[in-house]
Structure formats: structure tokens, C-alpha cells
Design goal:
Strand content: 5-15%
Radius of gyration: 16 Å
Mean pLDDT: 92
Shape: globular
Low-confidence stretches: none
Strand order of the largest sheet: 3-2-4-1-5-6
Largest sheet: 6 strands, parallel
Number of helices: 9
Number of strands: 6
Structural class: alpha/beta
Length: about 200
């Protein structure tokens, strides 16, 4: 299965979610092979893996190419799960990532700007559905601030964009940044903590 994390807006947490989901998939199925394909020219996932003091539990490769829809599937055949850490802004590259994926997760922070920007990604998913009718797309609320009106309102706003919104949300927590700085995930630091539980759910 190929899972793409994409949003035309930068700063929504695609890399954090990509490596966290990859780690959780491996925890659920320890014998599985998991790959993160870094399709962002900024190469955040690759930089994350280099910051780690030992090899990451899953493979990370750079593949920021507009031909990723053609180049990734033959590589992904050797893996049980492949996560695409998608780019911001580049429509051509994002379009290719979407065409490579089976499922597209669109992270969105509780901000009107991010909700508005997410429409561009939804449009690309709808365009891809013409060629891949089984392609699925879903929103996930990331960096949610608990007990705020904007955190509640963003769900209603996203529902107008015709993609389902996951019931599980990921909150704004310092531990995600602390983990990323040393090439780790929350499962390395506090596998039983609230942040890890949000990824698991």
C-alpha cells in the first residue's frame, strides 16, 4: 500500500506525520517492510533520518521527482507499506505523488489559511480520481489546540471540501518537535504517551 501525505500548504506537519505513521505501522507489524519516500525538494524526511544517531527503523529515500508516479511503484513492490512525504506548492510534483498513491492523507492545521489552501490538494485528488477511481482521500487535523473554537470549527469547514475528516486528531505537542530534532519519533521517546496514542488512533 502506498500512502501519500500531501497538502499544497507548507508547515502542516507532513514530515512529522509521515515518519510517525511509518514507525507505528512497523510497531503494529514488526516483520513488515516500511519505506518513507521523501518527495519534498526540502528533503525534511531525509534530514530527519540523518539526524538520528542510529539507522531508522524503516527505510527513507529521496524521490522528489515529477515522475514519482512511474518510479515509485516498482520500488514499493518490495515493501508492505510506503509513505510519501509530499511537497508543498509544486502542483506537478504533488500531482505525480497523488497518482502514485492508493490513499492520500491531507494534513490540515486549525487555521482558515490552511483550510483555504487545502482546496488545491482536494482538486488534485478529484482530478486523479478520473484515472484512479479507487484512490481514496481523507483529512487529518494536525497541531490541534485543545478546547478552542477554531479546533472545532475547522472540522465543519473541511467537511465542505468533500473529503471525509478523520475522527482522530493530532494535537500541538512539544514532544513532536523534540523528537524530530534528534531524528526520533514520539515512539522512541514516550511510546505510552498522549502524542503516541494520537498517532496510534
Amino acid at each position: 500500500m502506498i500512502i501519500g501525505l500531501l497538502n499544497q500548504k507548507g508547515g502542516v506537519g507532513k514530515t512529522t506525520l509521515s515518519v510517525s505513521i511509518a514507525h507505528e505501522l512497523l510497531r503494529r507489524q514488526p516483520q513488515s517492510r516500511v519505506l518513507v519516500a521523501d518527495a519534498d525538494p526540502q528533503q525534511s524526511s531525509l534530514t530527519w533520518s540523518e539526524a538520528r544517531n542510529k539507522a531508522p527503523p524503516f527505510h527513507v529515500i529521496g524521490l522528489a521527482k515529477k515522475s514519482i508516479h512511474r518510479d515509485l511503484p516498482p520500488i514499493a513492490v518490495g515493501y508492505d507499506f510506503t509513505i510519501i512525504d509530499g511537497p508543498a506548492k509544486s502542483s506537478e510534483l504533488a500531482r505525480s505523488c497523488i497518482m502514485a498513491a492508493d490513499v492520500v492523507i491531507v494534513p490540515c492545521t486549525p487555521s482558515p489559511y490552511d483550510v483555504w489552501a487545502s482546496k488545491d490538494t482536494v482538486d488534485l485528488i478529484e482530478e486523479a480520481n478520473i484515472y484512479k477511481d479507487k484512490l481514496q482521500g481523507v483529512f487529518v487535523i494536525n497541531r490541534k489546540i485543545a478546547n478552542t473554537a477554531i479546533g472545532r470549527d475547522v472540522v465543519e469547514a473541511l467537511e465542505l471540501l468533500k473529503l471525509p475528516v478523520l475522527k482522530s486528531h493530532v494535537s500541538q505537542r512539544v514532544i513532536f518537535a523534540e523528537a524530530a530534532g534528534s531524528g526520533m519519533t514520539v515512539f522512541d521517546i514516550e511510546p505510552g504517551g498522549k502524542a503516541a496514542q494520537e498517532i496510534i488512533n
